[in-house]
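Reviewer 2 asked us to include a model.

Predict the structure of this chain.
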Amino acid sequence: MVFLVRHGESEWNVAYKELGKDPGIRDAPLTETGHRQVAETAQRLRDEKHDLRRIVASPLTRALQTAHILAEALDLPVTVEPLVVEQIWFSCDEGTPRSELADAWPHLDFEHLDEYWWGPLTETEAQMLKRCARFRTLMAEAHDWPHVVVASHWAFIKGLTGNDTVNAGIVRFDPNAEPHKPDTALGEPGGGL
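Predicted model (structure tokens):
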């Protein structure tokens, strides 16, 4: 199974819960709690002795930080994949330019990204579900898919599998299984806050 891991708690998550509206925090980083949540998830993956070989990460900061914690704990390489970003809707879903990401994460390869790699801040559910389908195909074609961890986001994981997940939660995913067909709208983006 592919292990889909939602990023840990971000500064945006905390502010949104307090304010009840978008707090305007662009590409929000993890909180201290978020770091601890991901470290616990890494320990769980290690304890369960899965034969993990690599991590695929969204290029949003909270997912890169999540991938970094997992990679250090599990001794795995990380590749960056923009298909697994959050549904682009709120300020936290506006990314950081490629050149700044490369400076902040010099050990990761961002060359395949455009400088401003994220899309418009009103990605529809249908557009996001198309990304889910492309990622499903990409994983199904990968020879090592049963050994992959993906650091991603609530709406992407929900669109791909139909499952909600909490911060730093794990959802198992078989890209060769019958695709999830949403029978109702996913709800407001960020609904897994």
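Residues 2-18+26-173 form a domain with the Rossmann fold fold (CATH 3.40.50.1240). Confidence is low (pLDDT under 50) at residues 183-192. We have added this to the supplementary material.
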